[in-house]
């Protein structure tokens, strides 16, 4: 493993910390900034604290850092007012700023790989035909929960939650958000499953589920263990 690869998680964490700091500086709405970036504020320390016991693959670390930057940019400007999205809207003649849709695509594209890594390393699903559909379903479920949290924010915050919701006048915004997350998760699984598996194998991660010691090649398992699902 090269020195750069060894330091990659630290470098990515540093980039995210700088991004969070810049995002907080002069954010358009403090409440919206916190609601949009709370996933980063909680997730980054959690990953750092568990990095020795449960180190993540380089691919996943890079994607998580990219997703964090998407979140902090949206938190700084609000998703409906990100300048690049406004530019695209004007150039392409769109009815709304597309950054919100992009954010929800990322909400599926990146977390699905996190779920995939967790299940591959802690359950009998590694190599199973069930792994792909279950990871996609998990991301769709998370997207639905997120939409319910947005609904709760709207009920409690009233007009103050408008910037967080970023519906931009679309009555079908909730459905579009979940659809974008579904598309992002599906595309991620189709494109990244093989390179992700190669990194999991290269890092020689040992599955931690109770059936990890089964003798799959012989088609048998020791008492008290579970064979990987197929």
What layout of secondary structure does this protein have?
Layout: H1 3-24, H2 30-49, H3 58-77, H4 83-92, H5 99-109, H6 111-122, H7 131-157, H8 162-165, H9 173-202
What does this structure look like?
- There is one protein chain.
- The longest helix has 30 residues, at 173-202.
- The protein contains 9 helices and no strands.
- It has one domain (3-202).
- The protein has helices at 3-24, 30-49, 58-77, 83-92, 99-109, 111-122, 131-157, 162-165, 173-202.
- 68% of the residues lie in helices and 0% in strands.
- It has 230 residues and is mainly alpha-helical.
- It is globular and about 50 Å long.
- Residues 214-226 have low confidence and may be disordered.
Radius of gyration: 20 Å
- Helices and strands, in order, run as HHHHHHHHH
E-strand count: 0
Give the integer mean of the pLDDT values: 85
Number of helices: 9
Oligomer state equals single chain
Helix content: 55-70%
Largest sheet, described in full?
Answer: none
Terminal Cα span: 32 Å
Shape: globular
| Class from secondary-structure proportions | mainly alpha
- Uncertain runs with pLDDT below 50, 5 residues or more? 214-226
Amount of beta strand: under 5%
- What's the structural domain tally? 1
